[in-house]
Amino acid sequence: MNKAINQGVAAMLLLFTVACSEAPTTDIPTLEATEKSAPKPVVVDSLQLLPDESQITWRRFLDQKGSKKTMKLLGQQVEVDLGPVQLTMEGTVATNRGLLVLHNGEPTSGNLRFDMHTFHFAEHAGEGLFNVKDYPESELRLDGFRVLEGDSVHNCLADLTLELQNESHAYEVPLMVQATADRGKLKGSFTINTLDFPLRPKAKVQAINRDEIEVDLELVFGQMN
After folding, report:
1. Who wins on pLDDT, 97 or 68?
2. Is the predicted pLDDT of residue 15 greater than 50, yes or no?
3. What distances in angstroms separate CA 91 from CA 83, 144, 172, 213, one per listed residue?
């Protein structure tokens, strides 16, 4: 009888051993695999505009129809015919401040503040273009950057928003962009149609055939000491 019991016990142990050996195994990830699958941390850097190394220039093209203006002449109010105006002006712009934000060395956003007093436009028809008393600054926001292919000069297409006298207008601008963790450079140009902004009374708008300002940007950003 003891022999029979021993045989039964041996059979049960054999079945248990086989069952354990056939049980599915669960792979435990190694430290190396975990490190490979873990997302890399995003390093954010903010660079300040370096005004001494940056340059912003503008060219204005104005084509204005002839108009009439009432003026005081020899004590009398007289209506004077003003002929058409066609002119080209150019100059430089000062910036009050600027910022470029990088994620892992790639530019993602930023902004630039123009000093509107430095747009020294000659008066046309007796009036200046910008209201610098109420709006001494304008802002150019850098909303995003996308890779641009097939252009031998520019490598990015930037989404820009210009806010001028509380009115905003969006632009897609090809730029040459070079950036590292501690330095960034942007170069390109865009054209402002002044009629997109509330710069004149409605009556004056009707007298303008064309009024555009082309702005050339050469911006350098870096770590401020």
Report:
1. 97
2. no
3. 25, 28, 24, 11
Please give the pLDDT value at position 9. Answer: 46
Of 43-52, 122-131, 142-151, 188-197, give the lowest mean pLDDT range.
122-131
Q: Which two tokens stand for residue 137?
A: 């600054």
Lowest-pLDDT range, 42-56, 94-108, 113-127, 207-221?
113-127
Residues 135 and 113 in one domain: yes
Is the Cα dihedral 200, 202, 206, 212 positive or negative?
positive
Q: How far apart are CA 76 and CA 16, in angstroms?
A: 119
Find out whether 101 and 129 touch, Cβ atoms under 8 Å.
no
Shared domain for 130 and 159, answered yes or no, is yes
The range of the structural domain enclosing residue 33 comes to 2-37
Q: Burial-class residue 154 by CB neighbours within 10 Å (0-12, 13-18, 19+).
A: middle
Whether residue 106 sits in one domain with residue 61: yes
